[in-house]
Amino acid sequence: MGELRWNPILQEWVIVASHRTKRPLLPDKYHCPFCPGSPELEGKGKWQALHLPNKFPALMLDPPKPDIDAEDFYQVKPATGVCEVLLYTPNHNTELHQLDLDHIGAIIEMWIDRYKELGSLKEINYVFIFENRGRAIGVTLDHPHGQLYAFSFIPRRILTELSSAKQYMEKRKNCLYCDIIEKELADGRRIVYDNHSFIAFLPFYATWPYGVHIYSRRHIQSLLDLSESEKKDLASILKIIRAKYDALFGFKLPYTMVFHQKPTDGQDYPYDHFHIEFYPIHRGENKTKFLAGVELGTATFINPTNPEEKAKELREVKV
Ligand SMILES: [Zn+2]
Ligand SMILES: [Zn+2]
Ligand SMILES: [Zn+2]
Question: Which of 145, 213, 260, 273 is catalytic?
């Protein structure tokens, strides 16, 4: 069924999940598994936001024995973890930004609940909340939803972020993210929107033309640290940024949204700083950016646009 295989060259785990090729490409158009009345939701009662197990999980708490034997040379581990679907609303045609702030608040409580519950499992060392949005990036179900992968290991990109923040704090006695916030607020050119608790901006080193990052102004490590007023401000900034994205070209913009939070391995990460990153694939109304040779072969991004100009464009989108 599947396993984790270690890539000793890039020093990262690969999830082999061959059973997932059986998952539906697109469900038949008369039946959405996440709409009221679907058998998948039986017994769930009335809900605003709801988590469900992923029916085709790449990771499982009780994973099958790896198909292939580990050896001294090639390391293999069971594909331990949890994959969930996170429904934003029972209404098939309402996007997150069209929901009222209380409803978005209920989604935030769901994220908090899942991070807390799964993060407390001894098998789980990293809880990754994300959303793939739009057919253009391979989403098979249009019903507004996000997902969650709870990993037994800390993924490599997260380790890179943690290691940079740690080194920075050791050297400068400060948080790297907090210093970026200060720098961006002082400069202002790349700010898209900000409120009392969060700032949304295009990073100086943006890789995606419209790739907004949202940082909490307060130095916190996860959703669990949010105060009540910060939750309200998070709901509000998500609503505004996502509304701007759809208003930008007048269509539902495809993107990935990811949450970067501290690992749940029981260690302290005082240098980590909670943030959200968006990766929209468009670089213009009719143009998308493809990851090609340079990006795939060297992990060096070519951003064909200027972050200062794109931030201005997004800042000026009226919502
Ligand atoms: Zn639906
Ligand atoms: Zn910080
Ligand atoms: Zn990040």
Answer: 145
